[in-house]
Amino acid sequence: MNFLTKILFVALMIFGTEAAPSETKDVNCHHIPKTALNTTCCMAPEVISKSVIKQCEEDAEGQNYNEVMKECVTTACVIEKSDFMKDKEFSQELLLSHIATSLGDQPKWNDLIGSAVKTCIKKGMEQHEKIIKMFTKSPFGINADECNPVPMYVANCVDAEILVNCPEKSWNDEKSCNSWRRYLSKCDIFENIPTIDLKVESANLE
Q1: In the chain, what are the helix, strand and coil shares in percent, each to the nearest 5?
Q2: Domains along the sequence of the chain with CATH
Q3: Can you tell me whether residue 90 is helix, strand or coil?
Q4: Quick check: helix, strand or coil at residue 3?
Q5: Torsion angle of C-alpha atoms 4, 5, 10, 16, degrees rounded to 10
Q6: pLDDT over 80 at 70, yes or no
Q7: 89 strand-pairing partners
Q8: Greatest CA separation found in the chain?
Q9: Contact 167, 108 (CB under 8 A)
């Protein structure tokens, strides 16, 4: 399960606000697809060590955190253990260098994932205060003094960018995957989460 899948699952379990629907052409951003997002929609190469992710997830599970806070500290842990920090600050340069090394013989994937990282880090920097404000509110309840939610936002954004731009040869052409790809290509899930009646949407999932 990738970061985007996890955060959507958590949101579906805990959110429940209503708003009048608004549409982006044929996609209503306040109604998520009726099928759950799965991890086999885009068969992207792994660029982060599974063992590092597993260790960080296990460390987070041992803490008395809610599910979103666990994702936040897991993301921070992965960044630190993967040596993406320079002078105690996250380094885009180190991450992009790691991606290029991991995908040395796959230039198309390197370009796609590298572009997603740059796009999402830019969004994270531009919306820094907005992101923190959203995730510290109930029901997410992240303690920003203990964990900065912006890296988690960026990780989810990267997952979404990869899914939307996944090469056709690596794409799982199933109805559920196509529905999510269409939704995420039109809608920013984080901007729309507060206006989705997620309790209703969760009940409608097939």
Answers
A1: 60, 5, 35
A2: 3-47+88-204 (1.10.238)
A3: strand
A4: helix
A5: 80
A6: yes
A7: 86
A8: 48
A9: yes
- 56 near 77, Cβ under 8 Å? yes
pLDDT digits (tens, 9 = 90+) for 156-190: 889 889 999 999 999 999 998 999 899 889 887 66
Q: What are 131's two structure tokens?
A: 């992101």
- Distance separating alpha carbons of residues 32 and 169, to the nearest angstrom: 25
Contact 44, 170 (CB under 8 A): yes
What's the pTM? Answer: 0.81
Q: Which residue is associated with the tokens 């666990």?
A: 70
Residue whose C-alpha is closest to residue 166's, from 39, 71, 31, 51: 39
In single-letter form, the type of residue at position 4 comes to: L
Residue type, 113: I
The HSE-up count of residue 9 (CA atoms within 13 Å, CB side) is: 12
- Bridge partners, residue 90, by sequence: 85
Whole-number Å distance between alpha carbons of 142 and 145: 9
Q: Which two tokens stand for residue 139?
A: 């029901």
- pLDDT tens digits, residue range 84-110? 988 888 899 999 999 999 998 999 999
Quote the distance between the C-alpha of residue 2 and its chain's center: 7
Cβ distance 41 to 172 under 8 Å? Answer: yes
Instruction: Tell me the DSSP string of 41-71.
Output: SB-PPP-S-HHHHHHHHHHHHTS---HHHHH
